[in-house]
Write a structure and sequence with these properties.
With about 80 residues, this protein is α+β, with helices and mostly antiparallel strands. Helix content is about 30%, strand content about 20%. It is built from two helices and four strands; from the N terminus they run E-E-H-E-E-H. The strands form two sheets. The protein has a two-stranded antiparallel sheet. It has a two-stranded antiparallel ribbon with strand order 3-4. Strand 3 and strand 4 form a beta hairpin. It starts with a strand and ends with a helix.
Length: about 80
């Protein structure tokens, strides 16, 4: 797991979050619960509820900056 609070899009501070990587081949729990057929799949939760699910971050990528931008955007939308 990775924890982060800094380095958001545009240098903004990100909300606290945890990043976990799951081996989907060893457990079907997440695949079955969310009908995941494409890997990688990014799931983001806020307040115990799923607020983002996609196989790309920030609309087009899967890099660190895309992840940071998606976390910031998803957090802002989840609070609205």
């Amino acid at each position: 797991a990775e924890r982060s609070q800094r380095g958001g899009a545009g240098g903004a501070t990100l909300p606290p979050f945890e990043l976990h990587k799951f081996d989907m081949s060893s457990s079907r729990a997440l695949r079955d619960r969310y009908n995941i057929n494409t890997l990688p799949m990014y799931l983001m939760y806020y307040g115990g509820r799923l607020v983002y699910a996609s196989n790309v971050l920030n609309g087009y990528g899967s890099g660190k900056e895309d992840m940071r931008a998606q976390v910031a955007e998803t957090f802002a939308m989840a609070q609205a």
